[in-house]
From TrEMBL:
<dbReference type="GO" id="GO:0009306">
    <property type="term" value="P:protein secretion"/>
</dbReference>
<dbReference type="Pfam" id="PF00263">
    <property type="entry name" value="Secretin"/>
</dbReference>
<feature type="domain" description="Type II/III secretion system secretin-like">
    <location>
        <begin position="315"/>
        <end position="441"/>
    </location>
</feature>
<keyword id="KW-1133">Transmembrane helix</keyword>
<dbReference type="InterPro" id="IPR004846">
    <property type="entry name" value="T2SS/T3SS_dom"/>
</dbReference>
<dbReference type="GO" id="GO:0015627">
    <property type="term" value="C:type II protein secretion system complex"/>
</dbReference>
<feature type="transmembrane region" description="Helical">
    <location>
        <begin position="20"/>
        <end position="42"/>
    </location>
</feature>
<protein>
    <submittedName>
        <fullName>Type II and III secretion system protein</fullName>
    </submittedName>
</protein>
<dbReference type="InterPro" id="IPR050810">
    <property type="entry name" value="Bact_Secretion_Sys_Channel"/>
</dbReference>
<keyword id="KW-0732">Signal</keyword>
<comment type="similarity">
    <text>Belongs to the bacterial secretin family.</text>
</comment>
<keyword id="KW-0472">Membrane</keyword>
<keyword id="KW-0812">Transmembrane</keyword>
<dbReference type="GO" id="GO:0016020">
    <property type="term" value="C:membrane"/>
</dbReference>
<feature type="region of interest" description="Disordered">
    <location>
        <begin position="348"/>
        <end position="367"/>
    </location>
</feature>
């Protein structure tokens, strides 16, 4: 609110024949005015020609007027149904102008009158406007003020904040701008606020972000193959006639019955031995087991061996575990993704011995350090002008080697670094062999032939599928 009263001339249509006296203060668009006697507005402008209506538009008028500037301004605006209130000082008294305008609407006529009379208009309501002399002081006092809160991103220090405040006060003539928590608050006319808003949006647009979706697959493939022939390893050779006589001697009573019944003659050794085997009396003899015979007569020989076997089998298993992680990264920033666990490793021991006159005791305290085992993937993103996403990848695989030095496990480290470009709506595939083992799994004669089908294989692979999605920061605002 202004600190001094502003005296104004007021015209009230319904009391046009009387004098109205008011007092008031002008603030922005709200005006409470004092008026002087209405006889000051009674001067008529000398017309060089009458007003002509434009048939093309009801709101368009043509004017050919010459005379006092105040009278002409009042008369022209009254044609459009607008009365005026004069701010003091406004137009210098007794200033003569010539006003010729064809087919003009209210906006055009007011614009031309403002230039000719060096004044501007402040609307009070639909049918009343305030006429003020066009000076910087009056512009600051009478112009409508609006407040705008403009997001300003990427401001990191106080020096940059001061630059923004000076930009608002010097270039756009908006003093009193304040910046807090990334929000610029300014007061001024709507046109200037729109200009500084568009400028700040262009200069301090948010940094584009990338939503990097990583789908990880831990694939464990196990192939077990067993194939081969196991031949007999023990052979027993014997004389058939000798073993038959031994079998007959061991079963003399049964042999007498066979002879008495006439099943075989007394000297037919092989026939009697066959009948004893068939009757189940050769349990402890080699003749009672499976054998191979060759030769004849007294040289007939038998061969006995243990069993032979053939093995063939195939087993295959596959295990997949799926995980999905999302990294939200700004352009030029990096992030880390870890798969695995923290493993405690004893690095040292501290022993403390306490003793007294009667006894002593010792306490050992281990020092533990936790190491990250598994896969660590560090990613840095860049957005190219062509719309592709450039990824800088650094992968580290750490695990226990299986051996120890002085009781401390040995860690196995593997690192991989690369840079790649992923097109829009594309994905990148990264495969790493975590472990692989092979074991022979056959027996017998064919084990001497090392073929691929004779191995047990266990392979573990880590497959990472990375899909970047570019987020337009301006659309997220």
């Amino acid at each position: 609110m202004l600190s001094k009263n502003v005296e104004l001339y007021a015209v009230v249509e319904k009391h046009r024949q009387s004098s109205v006296r008011c007092h008031g203060i002008a603030t922005g668009a709200l005006v409470l005015a004092v008026s002087f006697p209405l006889s000051l507005f009674a001067q008529e402008a000398t017309q060089s020609s009458s007003m002509i209506e434009n048939p093309a538009c009801q709101d368009c008028r043509s004017f050919h007027l010459e005379g006092d500037a105040k009278a002409i301004l009042k008369q022209v605006l009254h044609v459009y149904g607008v009365d005026v209130v004069w701010a003091h000082p406004s137009i210098p008294p007794q200033r003569s102008i010539r006003f010729d305008l064809e087919g003009a609407d209210l906006s055009t006529a007011g614009y031309v009158l403002g230039i000719m009379t060096n004044s501007f208009f402040v609307p009070i309501n639909k049918h009343l406007a305030l006429v003020v002399a066009n000076t910087p002081e009056n512009r600051s006092a009478f112009s409508r003020k609006s407040v705008a809160i403009i997001p300003v991103n990427n401001v990191v220090d106080r020096k940059e904040s001061e630059v923004i405040s000076r930009l608002a006060s010097t270039v756009f003539e908006l003093p009193g701008a304040s910046l807090h928590d990334g929000l610029l608050t300014v007061r001024g006319d709507p046109e200037a606020l729109d200009q500084i808003s568009r400028t700040a949006e262009h200069l301090y647009r948010p940094t584009p972000r990338v939503r990097l979706v990583m789908r990880s697959y831990l694939v464990t493939s196990t192939n077990t193959r067993k194939a081969g022939i196991e031949f007999p390893t023990k052979f027993t050779f014997f004389n058939v006639l000798t073993e038959a006589n031994k079998l007959i001697r061991d079963n003399a009573s049964v042999v007498e019955e066979i002879i008495s019944e006439g099943l075989a003659s007394e000297g037919d050794v092989l026939t009697i031995a066959s009948l004893l085997i068939a009757s189940g009396y050769a349990g402890s003899s080699v003749l009672g087991n499976s054998s191979v015979y060759f030769g004849g007569g007294r040289t007939a020989t038998g061969v006995q061996f243990d069993s032979a076997s053939v093995q063939t089998s195939l087993q295959r298993s596959k295990l997949e575990r799926l995980q999905e992680q999302t990294l939200l990264l700004a352009d030029g920033s990096s992030g880390k993704l870890r798969f695995g666990q923290r493993y405690p490793i004893e690095t040292s021991r501290t022993s403390v011995t306490t003793s007294s006159t009667s006894s002593s005791s010792s306490t050992t305290t281990p020092s533990i350090q936790y190491e990250d085992l598994g896969v660590t993937l560090e990613t840095k993103v860049h957005l190219s002008a062509e719309g592709d996403t450039c990824l800088e990848l650094h992968q580290t695989i750490r695990g226990l080697q299986g051996q120890k030095a002085n009781g401390i496990p040995i860690l196995d480290n593997q690192e991989f670094a690369t840079s790649l470009s992923v097109p829009h709506n594309g994905s990148a595939l990264l495969v790493s062999d975590v472990s692989q083992s092979e074991t022979r799994a056959i027996r017998g004669l064919t084990s001497a032939v090392p073929t691929e089908s004779m191995l047990d294989k266990t392979t573990t692979q880590l497959v990472i599928v990375m899909t970047p999605y570019v987020l337009d920061a301006r659309s997220d605002r």
